[in-house]
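Narrative of accomplishments. A recurring question from our advisory board has been how the design workflow behaves on a single, concrete structure rather than in aggregate. To address it, we present the structure tokens for one chain from the evaluation set, followed by the sequence designed for it. No filtering or post-editing was applied between the two.
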């Protein structure tokens, strides 16, 4: 048993001869924003992939809300309340804002063909409700976007696309949001707006916890409560951003290299 929202216990992940995560242990509590930082190839994305069931760990255990989820498949992890965004945008550019967000809420909508045919009215009611929820969610980020729910996302600037990706992750009402390099490809001003958005998401999220992987240290410094630094799959430091930034091993492995 674990009293934390999330716990990695001695997790190892090997890909052939490469040890991407090396005896990695960490915890996360409700409402925390945790920064996961480290050089390229240090295991940050692998930790997300192990957590979300893309890969089973080679050794070790993962617990979420006191239940062991080691090796659970991605759908079970999503249904447990863990959602993510990706380093590269996974939006369908030709689809509308609304359709892209709906893809994030399949748990309520995907039922059997027969069930949908027989209770068509119920399906339509669910679609209406989800449409309202999607619009309300988008409106909390941008009223202007909420008025364009039927427009394709391909024409939107990067900051708006990132907002839609975050809305797609949030539409299912998760407990834990994993953000993988959300500032990638954005301008300085857009990055600042995004940080405000993420802090707003936590403020509104009724206990929502966030883990953010990010190379932009201004983002990490501003929005995280705590940071973990990885190097070659090993945790080399943990603490507030100020604490880890002052750590000589972190400076040698990562920050000093910039
Ligand atoms: N599917 C895979 N097959 C083989 N090796 C992999 C696989 N996924 C990750 N790795 C290796 O595991 C190590 C950790 O990679 P990972 O992507 O987790 O690092 P990262 O810290 O997220 O890097 P970046 O900051 O560049 O995104 C790297 O050496 C990488 O090449």
């Amino acid at each position: 048993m674990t009293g934390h929202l999330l716990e990695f216990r001695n997790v190892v992940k090997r890909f052939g001869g490469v040890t991407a995560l090396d005896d990695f242990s960490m915890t996360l509590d409700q409402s925390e924003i945790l920064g996961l930082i480290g050089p390229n190839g240090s295991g940050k994305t692998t930790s997300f992939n192990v957590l979300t069931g893309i890969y089973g760990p080679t050794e070790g255990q993962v617990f979420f809300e006191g239940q062991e989820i080691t090796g659970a498949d991605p759908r079970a992890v999503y249904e447990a309340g863990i959602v993510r965004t990706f380093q590269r945008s996974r939006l369908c550019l030709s689809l509308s804002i609304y359709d892209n967000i709906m893809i994030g809420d399949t748990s309520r909508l995907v039922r059997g063909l027969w069930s949908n045919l027989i209770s068509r009215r119920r399906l339509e009611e669910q679609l209406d409700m989800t449409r309202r929820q999607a619009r309300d969610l988008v409106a909390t980020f941008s009223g202007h976007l909420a008025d364009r729910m039927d427009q394709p996302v391909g024409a939107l600037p990067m900051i708006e696309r990132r907002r839609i990706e975050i809305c797609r992750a949030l539409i299912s009402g998760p407990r834990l949001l994993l953000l993988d390099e959300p500032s990638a490809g954005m301008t300085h001003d857009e990055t600042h707006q995004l940080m405000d958005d993420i802090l707003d998401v936590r403020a509104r999220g009724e206990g929502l916890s966030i883990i953010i992987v990010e190379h932009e240290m201004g983002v990490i410094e501003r929005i995280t409560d705590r940071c973990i630094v990885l190097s070659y799959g090993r945790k080399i430091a943990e603490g507030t951003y100020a604490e880890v930034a002052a750590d000589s091993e972190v400076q040698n492995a990562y920050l000093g290299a910039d």
